[in-house]
Amino acid sequence: MKKIATVDAIGHVICHDITRIIKDVVKDVAFKKGHVVKKEDIPVLLSIGKEHLYVWEKKEGMLHENEAAEILYEICNNENVKPSEVKEGKIEVIADIDGLFRVDVKKLDMINELDEIMIATRHTNYPVKKGEILAGTRVIPLIIEKEKLEKAQKIAGDMPIMELLPYKKMKAGIVTTGSEVYHGRIKDTFTPVVINKLNQYEISVCDHKIVNDETEMIINAISELKKNGADLIVCTGGMSVDPDDLTPSSIRKSGAKIICYGAPVLPGAMFLLGYFEDGTPIMGLPGCVMYSNATIFDLVLPRIAAGISVTKSDISKMGHGGLCLRCTKCTYPRCGFGKGV
């Protein structure tokens, strides 16, 4: 920091806020710390009594906060995002599409362990809308050693630490199992819920089959949906461990490799996920999906919609944060449910 005449300050960076006070009219910050002085600023500065300024003295190996913020943004920058205007060493990362937001949490933690810089993000695997803020980057001091930003770049490596994946254009087939629905004894209230959730991720329903509690009928329905080009198959009904609930065993017999039957999430413990050899996912949904606002289906579906292959390990990690608190007014996804991973 050095003191110079205001008339010689063009192009220099102010090191402190400068307040303007006009009695009974205004009291505010006329120029913020970090402002780069322009020619038109000189008369204003002189009018508020600033004949001298304390400015940042450019030194080798040091960066202004805005220069450093640009570097932090590039560590985050990837397809389908855009930056806010850089201001006071801060840049926000903004979604340019609807999609699934994912973060390399390990690298993020390592970068935030460095002094005087920070990156704050939404939770990883978070479904977001275009225009929403995904992350904020900030440099703490006005000037910072370039070496610290180089360390952050080294941690990030060749790939940005976050990504925003667009949802795939998918067609879903639905199999509703249950003699009570098959014989028309009750109205099917499950399928409309599933269709609504699928539509949130641009997944259309290409076919819907209602079957009795019979293994062969369930298998045939699944096979027909797959043969007719369904990119995703969703089965409802018959998902418990009762002897006459045959959906899990029928899914297995249909040729799908079961990733999990049972998950550490409430609601949603009886969830089933499998994949066919060609990568087509199939899900068995427990009854809670029909009447609970947020379940494991809401945690898994955005990943499936974005083309992510969900593993057994992914499901196991959902136990941390996998307890819904059943709030009187549900605010999901703006809550802690499912945000452990």
Automatic annotation (TrEMBL):
EC number(s) given by UniProt: 2.10.1.1
Highest taxon in the source lineage: Bacteria
Cofactor(s) demanded: Mg(2+)
Keyword set includes Zinc: no
SMART domains, alphabetized: MoCF_biosynth
Record-annotated MoaB/Mog domain positions: 173-306
Pfam families: MoCF_biosynth (PF00994)
InterPro entries in alphabetical order: MoaB/Mog-like_dom_sf, MoaB/Mog_dom, MoeA-like
Chemical reaction(s) catalysed: adenylyl-molybdopterin + molybdate = Mo-molybdopterin + AMP + H(+)
Pathway assignment: Cofactor biosynthesis; molybdopterin biosynthesis
Keywords: Magnesium, Metal-binding, Molybdenum, Molybdenum cofactor biosynthesis, Transferase
Function in brief: Catalyzes the insertion of molybdate into adenylated molybdopterin with the concomitant release of AMP.
Family: Belongs to the MoeA family.
Protein's name in the database: Molybdopterin molybdenumtransferase
Organism: Clostridium cibarium
